[in-house]
């Protein structure tokens, strides 16, 4: 068990936003809440998944919805705690810990807030190693664990439990419909996981990894070094493209933020263009029409000077950006993994090709 | 407690279809299932609400959705029994009896089937005295009883419980969204009611009333008398219009069947036209542009020869129909009742005016 301090949460916000690969929501408001809770003496505790007993019960949480809406309707972290309580009432059992479904963006921070409200730790692990937009895009789904039950709540006092589903896509359909009716944002507690399931299927250490990544960026900034080089070194990534955002198309539809953006090359990329597609997260990058990076590998759009991540809801004309790609968790590169999160899962008619292939 | 026999269920199907005021779904398939269950020796038992203990728990059930879809996707009555079981699992308590939320149409018969599957009786009462399309259009909602929880299931094995809502319209919105995602049809168990609540707020005796109405129609047919006159006598109704259906506009949208139909006058109504609006049920009748009957009073479109009801999903060009109006339950004529089920609740910009006013 480890207690997080002020510098940890600052680093976590920077690192999780990069790992969000455009989605997961901006962590800024969650960071403000974490700062306040820490200042008030709250304990933010992180638990190594290896320390879980096999029959411990872990609440897997996230804010579901369209990132743009999350910017407009601030999330009270007590709402996620409420989603966990609704699940406890449904199960008639208490949780040992909380866990983020995705380390990316705000959803890498919110579980810490919920855990603090509930007086339990957050597990140092997630089920994506990044952010993905849909329910079945998790290691748990790839592992064919049960998709149900799921609790979902909104700030008006509306609460529901999806108690059983035919399959993972049905969980996505049903929970997304409820989320859309709530206003395209909902606090959710996904199917509870046992300690054994977390140890077998979760991606361990991703909160620590996001903190380390954020620290590397902060250290580079403090040393007037290149923060993007620091990201690439920390995550064994590849630089794809640098330029200026010249086009953004964005629509909030069926509970998602979808669209595309275009980058006009600068420096060594002058004369070229990079097209980016997104569904909450960046899903495909194509240089002059040729796909050069794709899901499940992490396409990250960073501010060229600060290395700060830019989200699909905050990308805008004129930003100077550097686009990089980071490796995906190995489980997602298997045949079953790619069926859940490969390019075809996002409607791109492409076989997966790694940006790290020779 | 009373056991229903073969002639009871035949009469119930005819009577409930008339009281459905165009909606509640055609009872034909439910009748076929009831016939089979009876032939197999199942007990169909009806319980007087006065026989309920105050703390008995009653499951209030219906098939929710668009009547046209219900014609296309047959309902297995075990699905409603499953919705009741999901609610029992959620509550951790067993039900004493089942009750229809609406006596109108198929939904007046399905609860008897579910009750037979579950081995418990059906209460001789409902919460509408007819059929209405939305969750908050019940005596329970007018009485400001709790709208939650509600369980909803589909034949694929998808199941959800709406555990809490801000108010009745939110229950309608959320449950309708889930229903729409299920394919515009769902088996639902509404908020459980205590025996005390049923005795205070339900409309008592409506199953018996529907059976008596059906018997009156069957007796008139057997005697070569006018079945429509028999309906008017049994329910103290008024004849509005007779003619031929000459126009039907129908769309299945947001979980409802909506549209309008036009009747061209015949006989003493020759030269006049009657326009009918519907949202699952007939909501408004206007003669040559002048409203002459409206919700919550029961507008019933009957086959001019047989007195058989015609539903909003079965009305079609060329049918010879007689349109009648039957009185509404008194609770719906109060100011609070009209707020829930008056013409404005269906988007008609009209003050309620009774078709029985002098």
UniProtKB/TrEMBL annotation, chains A, B:
Name of the protein: DUF917 domain-containing protein
Domain S-Me-THD-like C-terminal per the UniProt entry, residue ranges: 168-353
Domain S-Me-THD N-terminal: 8-163
UniProt organism field: Caldovatus sediminis
One Pfam family here: S-Me-THD_C
């Amino acid at each position: 068990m480890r207690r997080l301090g002020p510098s940890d949460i600052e680093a976590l916000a920077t690192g999780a936003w990069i790992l969000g690969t455009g989605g997961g929501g901006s962590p800024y408001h969650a960071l403000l809440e974490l700062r306040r809770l820490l200042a008030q003496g709250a304990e933010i505790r992180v638990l190594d998944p290896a320390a879980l007993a096999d029959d411990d019960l872990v609440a897997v949480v996230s804010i579901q919805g369209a990132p743009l809406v999350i910017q407009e309707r601030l999330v009270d972290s007590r709402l996620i705690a409420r989603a966990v309580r609704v699940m406890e009432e449904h199960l008639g059992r208490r949780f040992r810990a909380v866990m983020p479904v995705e380390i990316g963006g705000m959803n890498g921070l919110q579980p810490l807030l919920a855990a603090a409200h509930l007086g339990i730790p957050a597990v140092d692990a997630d089920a994506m190693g990044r952010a993905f937009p849909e329910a079945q895009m998790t290691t748990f789904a790839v592992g064919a664990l049960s998709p149900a039950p799921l609790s979902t709540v909104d700030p008006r006092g509306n609460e529901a439990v999806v108690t059983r589903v035919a399959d993972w896509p049905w969980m996505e359909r049903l929970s997304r419909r409820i989320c859309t009716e709530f206003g395209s944002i909902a606090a959710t507690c996904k199917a509870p996981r046992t300690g054994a399931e977390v140890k077998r299927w979760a991606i361990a250490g991703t909160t620590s990894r996001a903190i380390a990544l954020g620290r590397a960026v902060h250290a580079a900034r403090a040393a007037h070094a290149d923060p993007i080089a620091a990201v690439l070194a920390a995550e064994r990534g590849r630089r794809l493209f640098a330029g200026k955002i010249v086009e953004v198309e964005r629509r909030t539809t069926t509970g998602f933020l979808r669209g595309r953006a275009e980058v006009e090359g600068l420096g060594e990329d002058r004369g070229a263009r990079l097209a980016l597609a997104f569904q909450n997260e960046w899903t495909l990058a194509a240089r002059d029409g040729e796909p050069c990076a794709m899901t499940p590998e992490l396409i990250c759009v960073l501010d060229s000077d600060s290395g700060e991540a830019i989200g699909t809801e905050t990308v805008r004309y004129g930003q100077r950006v550097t686009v990089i790609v980071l490796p995906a968790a190995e489980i997602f590169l298997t045949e079953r993994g790619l069926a859940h999160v490969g390019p075809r899962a996002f409607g791109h008619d492409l076989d997966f090709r790694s940006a790290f292939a020779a």
